[in-house]
Amino acid sequence: MTSRERVRAAIQHQEPDRVPLDLGAMRSTGIMAQAYHRLKGYLGITDGETFVYDLPQNLAQPESCMLEKFGVDVVDLSRVFLTDPRERKPWRLVDGSPTTVPTYYEPESDGAGGWLVRGDEGQVIGVAPQSQAYITQVYWPLSEGVTDEALRDLPYHMQQVIWGRTSLSYGQWHRPMTDEWLAEVARRAQALHEETDYAIMVGFGGNLVEWGQFLRGFDNFLADLAGDPAAAHKLLDALTELHLQNLERFLGAVGPYLDIVQMGDDLGMQNGPQFSPQMYREFFLPRHQQIYTAVKKYSDCFVFLHSCGSLYDLIPMLIEAGVEILNPVQTSARDMEPHRLKREFGKDLCFWGGGCETQSTLIHGTPQQVRDEVRQRLAVFGVGGGYVFTQVHNILSDVPAQNIVAMLEAAGSV
Length: 414
What we know:
The protein is α/β, with parallel strands linked by helices. The chain has one domain: TIM Barrel, CATH 3.20.20.210. 40% of the residues lie in helices and 15% in strands. It is built from 16 helices and 18 strands. The chain has helices spanning 3-11, 33-43, 64-70, 148-152, 154-160, 179-195, 209-216, 218-227, 229-254, 277-283, 285-298, 315-321, 338-345, 361-364, 367-381, 401-412, and strands at 31-32, 52-54, 59-60, 74-76, 88-92, 98-102, 108-109, 115-118, 124-128, 136-137, 199-205, 260-264, 268-269, 272-273, 302-306, 325-327, 350-352, 387-388. It has a 7-stranded parallel beta sheet. A 4-stranded antiparallel beta sheet has the order 7-8-9-10, with no helix packed on it. A 3-stranded antiparallel beta sheet has the order 1-3-2. Helix 7 (209-216) crosses helix 8 and helix 8 (218-227) crosses helix 9 (229-254). It starts with a helix and ends with a helix. Mean pLDDT is 93; it is low at 164-173.
């Protein structure tokens, strides 16, 4: 089977020749740049470069040599952008390792060994204190309230809290999609589709919960759901309409060359959802359903939802909304045990992740413990299709290279 056939078969609950493998096909199945740089050294790879394509999370874009070495089956469409060396510049990671970043990334020193990032109006929108690998949001454009004026300028406000993203990512969907831009994206997507056999994923986002929190602030948005539902509905209606407009435009041009549209909304916490199932049904289910239905209306793509945390109580409604693929499968969260998930929802969902615990085994275990856990997870999730292997969320900066190799080799051997 080709990689594309393998992935599509697994999603459709057909058992492929082997379990498909993902490394970096979206921004929660990737690898932090420090770990990637060390992995290359461990493998003796001296050419190429460690390119940080997602600056807030400090994620490296896996190079073709790495994808080929481990038999990776799916890629992020954004890899076809910022490929010109003239669009990259040298940089240093917090541990001093050499890397490159997009030329447009221009953080300022905070005077204490860290960095800060400003928005278009000079406001500080993100900070990375000394030795911190991540950029943390510190600016919420709608923190003072959901007003008609703010909603009229919603795309602009959304752009102000997206920094350091490639031109093909969450931020772009909220800028005007010109015919020229869409034509160029379609040209590059078609080339990737025709010249490789990878399954191709695009990170569209379609976020409602997350955008509410990015724009209002986590506390304000959750308070709106409970205490000012009219304001919450008003903001969510505006976000939904914007997502629907952009989906129609984007998929009308690029959809024929894609396999998976990745949506994102972190609904869960470690011990349960952020809000009750009743609140999900009132505020989010009908809107998610509109957005996910639009994917099927305008393309032959599968609907992928990234949502961290304990989702067990919401999974039936996510299936009702149209989710076909669930990630990251945070098996350490409450009620997210692999056997239970596969038994109760395996006929309706393709699980994408949960293959190795990033917070424990992958970072603290031995290579043999990593291999054992991978094989245990494959024995549960991989039966009868409906599974794509990747670890639970991104590979963190201090994960040992030998553990990464043990995980990927064990996954690829089944």
